[in-house]
Amino acid sequence: MTFSAIVSADTLQSALDSVSVLVDECKIHLEPEGLEIRAVDPANVGMVDLELAASGFESYEADGGLIGLNLTMFKKVIGMADSSQLIHLELNEQIRKLDIRFGEVDYTLALINPQSIRQEPDIPSLDAPVTLTATGKQLDRGVTAADLISDHVVLETTADHELVIDAEGDTDDVQVTFDEDDLVDGRINESVSSLFSLDYVTSIVGVMDADHEVEVRLDDEMPFRMSYDHSDGAASVTYTLSPRIGGGD
Amino acid sequence: MTFSAIVSADTLQSALDSVSVLVDECKIHLEPEGLEIRAVDPANVGMVDLELAASGFESYEADGGLIGLNLTMFKKVIGMADSSQLIHLELNEQIRKLDIRFGEVDYTLALINPQSIRQEPDIPSLDAPVTLTATGKQLDRGVTAADLISDHVVLETTADHELVIDAEGDTDDVQVTFDEDDLVDGRINESVSSLFSLDYVTSIVGVMDADHEVEVRLDDEMPFRMSYDHSDGAASVTYTLSPRIGGGD
Amino acid sequence: MTFSAIVSADTLQSALDSVSVLVDECKIHLEPEGLEIRAVDPANVGMVDLELAASGFESYEADGGLIGLNLTMFKKVIGMADSSQLIHLELNEQIRKLDIRFGEVDYTLALINPQSIRQEPDIPSLDAPVTLTATGKQLDRGVTAADLISDHVVLETTADHELVIDAEGDTDDVQVTFDEDDLVDGRINESVSSLFSLDYVTSIVGVMDADHEVEVRLDDEMPFRMSYDHSDGAASVTYTLSPRIGGGD
């Protein structure tokens, strides 16, 4: 098993952030064409699929291995680097360590046996009737408002061509409404609605940049998907979130 | 009862801040010429009288109603807006809700029965022998120093034309002294002194901007008054603070 | 005993910071040529020797007295001043107080009986085989990395002309390596190594500026010394840190 790569700190950090929002440790597939991570949180509610293509690296060499990684520790190490600094990664399979070098720092990270890490989820294919694209900022506005009064949020679309992010508290309620023309892309012709745990939505939206363009797929009382690219398209992230039972307002 | 208004987020936030420093909920008089709030803290030590004139609004319409409001929640909602964003307020009397709209956000805030809110204080008229005007920054300097060593503070004026903010700790003491010529305005010819709880003074001074010009009225072992305007004179705030018994140094 | 001085807030604050990292109270020698403070932390592990020459003051007058000072309180008082503001210090021996004045503030700080303060350490002379000069930033990089995984750190030099800051966790390890050419100054020809408590090293390096040039003296399983100047050379600080027993990797 061979893995040797050079990547900018900010590309790597963004990729790790998108996974660590759901899990503390994960399996990483070291494919010839790039890294892939699939993970599901302990409650089996949120799934992430991250692909970081070889084109996102300054240099990349891998032959299809699988390693287990302590994401929390890995992120702390990368967090010491300046954002544009190049990180050198090198797998030492015999001693099951990942060597991380940047500037004067040489950190040796012990790997985790992949078999001891929660099984990777099968990301379901969604046949969602509504697909739209919103900015990270728009989604953030919605979940921030919902978070004022509730611990769950309704995501719905209306026959009036609107996306509505909706929450109800004990006495108050809030709606954040985007007309389809306010969004980056997408036509909304159907009325669907699902209820989600706000903890998950807030955390996931929290790792997005304000100007990320996020494709959202929604169905009626069904899982909800958010996908976006970063690092000039080299990284693609897909979240799938299960609805709360009894949802849909 | 009718109330419908448009106001910038920062004007509204400043007005709410000046009241929420003493109470979490309050009655608001929706007079044709503007809003008025009078409140006293639970310990009956600090009183505030806020007037926000119709001229401080982009648009304002009211016919003399009285509503009860959860200030804490109202402030959180307004806090989501950008400071220059316009807030649309509309009272729905039948369902006892205040509709708050800005940008894509539409928040419905449940009102509180005004009768369940602590009675409004009668703001006493003061016949204080000393009236002077200091900046928010000068007052802040004084209370910050006092706060290093004590939980109460003496405000005094001297026959030497000085305002002295004075605190004594177990072993140390501190005086912050302003000659009347250092102040924005006011002649000091009389020697008066009163002792106040620093918690109140610090909180109240904390909501003032450094360049606010604050009229201060002081008497000997008597309540103390601070008044200032903001939002181009549309908002006027008056605090009256009872002295601690046994005070006056 | 006479002491009267005027000094900029930032010079005084930097000087106090370098001592307060080890102790909360200290003796100060008020010598005609300047202040001197020597202190050792309660565990007898870290020693500091601070000299602040009369040239670092705007005005300075002292005749060799000794006072005891509550550093924590002194720092809070100075912390209220703007960094370029001039601090007037005046000893009032009869009432055992130090008068601290700046702007409108007049703070009277009670002194501590010097006899009640832990005895000053004898700073040992070191006959260290390795002397080098690194920046505050370089040292910070090393201790920050070590701090990720351990509560102690190995400082070593190698026959390969390198300074290595080295830490080992339960599963991971990290080395931060500087070639002698990367350093500000110093030739490294000898291999020495000592183990130190990271708490001390982190705190001490934490008070240094990134561009401070710090002279480091290292020996094999022996105390370690860091010295640097600030305030245009008027202040000189020397730290001596005892190694942990069983150290040296």
TrEMBL record, chains A, B, C:
Keyword Transcription regulation included in the entry's annotation: no
Pfam families, sorted: PCNA_N
Matching SUPFAM superfamilies: DNA clamp
Proliferating cell nuclear antigen PCNA N-terminal domain: residues covered: 7-100
CDD domains membership: PCNA
Regions crossing the membrane: none
Stored PROSITE patterns: PCNA_1
Keyword DNA-binding applies: yes
Keywords: DNA replication, DNA-binding
Known function: Sliding clamp subunit that acts as a moving platform for DNA processing. Responsible for tethering the catalytic subunit of DNA polymerase and other proteins to DNA during high-speed replication.
HAMAP family registered for this protein in UniProt: DNApol_clamp_arch (MF_00317)
Subunit structure, as described in the record: Homotrimer. The subunits circularize to form a toroid; DNA passes through its center. Replication factor C (RFC) is required to load the toroid on the DNA.
UniProt xrefs under NCBIfam families: PRK01115.1-5
UniProt similarity note: Belongs to the PCNA family.
Protein name listed in UniProt: DNA polymerase sliding clamp
Protein source organism: Haloarcula onubensis
Gene name tied to this protein: pcn
